[in-house]
Write a structure and sequence with these properties.
Elements (H helix, E strand, L loop, with lengths): L7 H9 L11 E7 L4 E10 L2 E10 L2 H13 L5 H15 L25 H25 L1
Antiparallel strand pairs: 1-2, 2-3
Helix pairs in contact: 1-2, 2-4, 3-4
């Protein structure tokens, strides 16, 4: 009997660890932390005109957060804050029994087993929240220098 929370597809995503590591001298870094379980995700971004041109993550977290970060590592290039905000909304909706996001983030369908584990939803969302933290920092800086 297999655990629906940890499907082979999800475990494969975590093992792939796309984007794992840190960037040297990133334009901005972001952090998301879950005090309930201790999961922590730090992301580094290189940006050009508000678009992500390089992404790396240091994910000290459960396999769910690792898999989510890996999806971002494989697909985040070219995204901007609007794209990431929409992704957060779509993944949140999926975790509440909605459809999985479309391409290029359709790999989030691997989290279908997490729907019934509401206490684990934050684990899936944590890497996306870290990216938003970084992108929101750049917007605050831009507003303060304008």
């Amino acid at each position: 009997m297999s655990d629906p929370l940890y499907s082979k597809a999800l475990l494969r995503l975590a093992a792939d660890a796309h984007g794992a590591g840190r960037l040297t001298s990133p334009d901005v870094s972001g952090l998301a932390y879950n005090p309930a379980c201790g999961d922590k995700v730090v992301v580094d971004l290189f940006l050009s005109d508000g678009q992500i041109i390089a992404f790396a993550h240091d994910t000290k977290a459960c396999v769910l957060a690792q898999a989510s970060a890996s999806i971002l590592g494989a697909n985040l290039k070219g995204a901007n804050i609007v794209t990431v905000e929409r992704l957060l909304a779509r993944v949140t909706d999926m975790l509440e029994s909605g459809p999985a996001p479309g391409p290029p983030f359709d790999a989030y369908s691997a989290f279908s087993g997490a729907v019934e584990y509401t206490s684990r939803h934050r684990c899936v969302l944590l890497p996306i929240e870290a990216v938003l933290d970084a992108l929101q920092k750049t917007q605050r800086v831009a507003k303060n220098t304008a």
